[in-house]
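Work package 3, deliverable 3.1, input record:
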Amino acid sequence: MAEKTKNINATLDDGVKPGDVLVDIKGLKTHFTVGTTGIVFGIGADKKTVLAVDGVDLEIKKGETHGLVGESGCGKSTLGYTLLQLVDRTDGTVTYAGNDLTEMKKEELRTYRRNLQIIFQDPAAALDPRMTIGQAIAEPLQIHSIVPDDEMDDRVTDLLSTVGLNPYFRNRYPHEFSGGQQQRIVIARALAVQPNFIVCDEPISALDVSIQAQILNLLENLQEELGLTYLFISHDLRVVRHISDTVSVMYLGKIVEQSDSDALYDDPLHPYTKALLSSVPAENPEVAKSKNRIVLEGDVASPIDPPSGCRFRTRCPIAEDACADAIPELREVKKDHWVACRLA
Amino acid sequence: MITFFSFAALDKGVLDIFAKAVVGMKSTIVTQYEFYKNISETHDKFILASTAYLRSIILLMSGIIIGSLSGFVLGIISGVNSDSKLAGFSSYFSFIGIFVPSFLLALIVLILFVRYIGPATGIRFVLINPMVDVFDPRRLLAPSLVLAVRPMAFITQITIGALNEVVKKDYIRTANAKGLKSRIILFRHILPNIALPSLTAVNSSIFFSLSSLLIVEWLFAWNGAGYMLLEAVEKHDAILTTYLLILIGSSFMILNYLIKLAMLKLDPRSIGLN
C-alpha cells in the first residue's frame, strides 16, 4: 500500500535538479485600478492605482521552502496570485523551470497549471460548498486526464489517506468537516495534479494552534516524500522560521530583506525586519521583560500613494533626509543576505 | 388588494352562502328545487372561476418565465463581464425596472401596442371585449411583458450581486489554478452557488407579479381571475369571489411551498449528516 501511494503521488518531472532555481521572478509589478467608474458617462469617476506589488525579484530553488513575511496588505498574497497568473501582472516576468508563464498562451497555460498549485488561508472558502470532497479531489484529475475513470476511486482514496483523512468521508460535504480537516482536503486537492510547486497562502492562519502544528508537519512530510517546493506566505514569524529555508521580508509591495532563514532571524539588517522580529512575543516572561522592543510609529503608508525614496522611511526609527531621495535597491551586504536599505 | 376584496365578499355573508352552495345546508328550510338549483349554479360558477383562473396562471407564468429567464441570463452575462457596456446598461435598466409602478408601465405598453405595434404589424394584440373568448397566444404578449419587467429587473440585480460575491471566493481561484476552462467554472462552480439567491428572487417576483395581475388583466382585457374578481365584486357575486380567492390563495401557498422544497434540495448544508 505504501509503495502504491508513493508511486501514485509522484510529482511531474520538470527537468530541474534539486537546488537549482525553479521559480524566477524578475521585476514583477502588479497594479490594480480602484475607485468608482462614475454614474453616467464617467461623471464623478475617481480612479486610482494601487501598487500592490511593485518591482519584486525573487528566486526559489527546487526542494526548498521560501518564506514570505510582512504585514497585512503589503502585497504578499498578490505576489503569490501573480506568480500563479491568477492575477494579471502589470510588468515583469515569472519563469518556471525555464518557461515564461507570463508569455504563455491561455490554453497552454491552462494545461501547464498542473505544475503549480495553491493552498489558501480559509479552507472553508476554498472548497465549493455544493461539491462533496470526493468530487472536489477528483475534479483536477478529470480535467487533466491524469487517471482513467475506473481508477479514479482508488486515486481519491490514496490522496485522502496521504493527507491523513479517512477515505470513508469522501461523500460528505465540506461543511461537515472541521477547519483542520478542510485544510487537509485542500492539500489533497492540490496534490492531486502532482504539482512540483505549491504556494501556501497563510495555510495555517485560520486554524487552531494545535491543528497548525499538524498541518505544518503534514506539509513538511509531503515535501520530504515528494520533493515539493513551497512559497510559504505568512505573517506568523515563528512559523516561517520553523518551516522555511530562505525568507523574504516584504513591505508595501517591495522586498526589503532576503536571506537564509537562520541568518535573517539571528542577524536582521533592515530596520523593518528588526522591528518585526522584536514584536514576536517571547515564551519566557523574564526574557520578555528584558527584551528591547522596537515599536513602530504610525500606520503603513498607502500603496496608492507610497512615500518617495525608501517606502519605510516614514516609520523608520533611523531614517535620514537622504532616504527620501532614491529608492534603495536590494544589495548583498553579507553572503546571500540581501537588504534594501542604504544605512544597513 | 386581495384582502380588501375578501372583506367585500365577507360583507355579503359569504360564509353562509358558501355553506349553502357546497352542502345545501342553510338555517332556513331549503326545498329540493332550490337545493339543486344552487348546486348547479355553484357548479357553473366553479367552472367559470377555474377557467378564468387557468387563463390567469398562463399569463402569470409566461410573465414570470420570460422575466426570470431573461433576468438570469442578463445577470450572468453582465456579472461575468462586469466592465462591459451591457453590464452598465443592465444595471441602469434593473434600477429603473424595480421602482417603476406596474400600472404606469402597463399604460405605456398598452399605448405602444394599440397605437403603434398593432397597426404596424396588422395584429390585434389587445382585444376590446374580454368576453370574446378566443384564446390567442398573441394576446399574451403585451400583458406578460408588463408582468415580466419587474421580475426581470429584480432577478438581474440579485444575480449580479450573487455572482460578484461568488467569483471572489477562493474556490473559484482554485478552479482557475487547477486549469479549469472558464465555461466549466461557470457551469460547475458558479451557477450552483448562485442558484439559491436567484431562486429566492424568483419566489418574491411571483408575489410582485401577483399584486399587479389585477390591474394588468383589467387594462389588457385579459379575461382571467383578476378581471373576473373585479367583476364579481362589482356584481356582489360572493360565490364567484370566494372561489376565485380560494383558488388564487391556495395555489400561491402551494407554489411557495414547492420553491422552498427546491431550495432545500439545492443546499447540501440543509440535508444534514448521514
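Residues 7-12, 24-28 of chain B have pLDDT under 50 and may be disordered.
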